[in-house]
Design the sequence.
């Protein structure tokens, strides 16, 4: 049994205290208080030394707030704790994860391969801080600021899996609508897209895009994740919806989901440029920034000759498919998509007529 499992199964924690504080946070707080008093340090002195407010430091001692790694490192140095606090930091971080997700998170730590299909959102392992924060800020019921911060920190902490040694092989299939939906606004999505492009350089992360108008494919049943563990090469699946998660260990179901993932990748899930290769499959995506321009929120502009007199005018925006045109007065209205060659021909003809 792992150390984490032992901690999870220890009797008497939240139920006995009549609150929701994870037992490991309470234990950490008691250790911190013991070490602080042993060193003859007040809470005010400790708070000042580690760069936290008195209220934050008191909350950590009371087990109401999880200690971040930076706090633990600073407290270790100041209190000369000898590694006691660092020894439980991983468990403190683990307890930040939603309760429904923790069983899967344990398996994820031991994975040698990780395949994920997500049609509506950028997968958590690939999210930027701003994107993740926008999701938690929009959560229903509304989260407190401290809970939002806790969830963002936990999500970013999981991303260490992408660079752990030995490397885990990651394959992600993301729905086109997840990349078109401006979660957090245009700048957040631009940063998110740049982050996805950077991940190509890691060598162990593959990202593909499932076109929205690709017809039927096996990913339409919803998101799922497939794992293979290092221990005995066991295979698991994970399905999550509406803050409910389910780890699937039944070999028949895992095999079925594995087949569906393979079919999704093979038949449908690649480039959004809608151009077919000779094999009939969509071409691979995430190869150049130009190929992903279509996923970014469109940047609309008008001619520099356009005045402010309220006359009729159109706006244009570049996209991977060519150029989009819309009425500047009806920005939520229909858009006309024109191929690159068609737009070039139009501009050339217009230029000749003006001359």
Sequence:
């Amino acid at each position: 049994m792992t150390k984490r499992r032992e901690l999870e199964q220890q009797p008497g924690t939240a139920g006995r205290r009549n609150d929701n504080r994870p037992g490991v946070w309470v234990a950490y707080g008691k250790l911190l208080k013991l070490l602080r008093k042993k060193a003859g340090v007040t809470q005010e002195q400790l708070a000042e030394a580690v760069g936290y407010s008195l209220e934050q430091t008191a909350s950590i001692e009371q087990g109401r707030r999880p200690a971040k790694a930076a706090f633990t490192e600073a407290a270790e140095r100041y209190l000369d704790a000898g590694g006691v606090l660092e020894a439980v930091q991983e468990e403190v971080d683990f307890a930040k994860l939603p309760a429904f997700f923790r069983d899967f998170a344990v398996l994820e730590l031991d994975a040698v391969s990780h395949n994920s299909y997500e049609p509506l959102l950028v997968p958590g392992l690939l999210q930027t801080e701003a994107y993740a924060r926008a999701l938690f800020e929009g959560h229903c019921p509304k989260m407190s600021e401290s809970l939002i911060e806790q969830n963002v920190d936990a999500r970013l902490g999981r991303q260490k899996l992408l660079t752990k040694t030995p490397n885990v092989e990651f394959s992600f299939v993301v729905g086109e609508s997840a990349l078109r939906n401006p979660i957090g606004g245009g700048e957040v999505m631009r940063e998110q897209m740049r982050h996805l492009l950077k991940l190509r350089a890691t060598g162990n992360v593959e990202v593909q895009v499932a076109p929205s108008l690709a017809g039927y494919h096996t990913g339409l049943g919803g998101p799922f994740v497939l794992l293979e563990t290092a221990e005995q090469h066991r295979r698991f699946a994970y399905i999550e919806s509406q803050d409910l998660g389910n780890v699937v260990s039944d070999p028949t179901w895992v095999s079925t989901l594995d087949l569906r993932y393979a079919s999704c990748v093979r038949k449908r899930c690649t480039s959004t440029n809608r151009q077919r290769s000779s094999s009939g499959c969509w071409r691979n995506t995430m190869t150049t920034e130009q190929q992903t321009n279509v996923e970014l929120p469109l940047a609309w502009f008008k001619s520099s000759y356009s005045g402010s007199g309220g006359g009729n005018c159109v706006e244009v925006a570049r996209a991977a498919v060519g150029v989009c045109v819309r009425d500047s007065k009806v920005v939520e209205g229909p858009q006309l998509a024109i191929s690159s060659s068609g737009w070039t021909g139009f501009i050339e003809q217009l230029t000749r007529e003006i001359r």
Observations:
- The chain has three domains: 3-90, 99-290, 298-354.
- Residues 251-267 form the longest helix (17 residues).
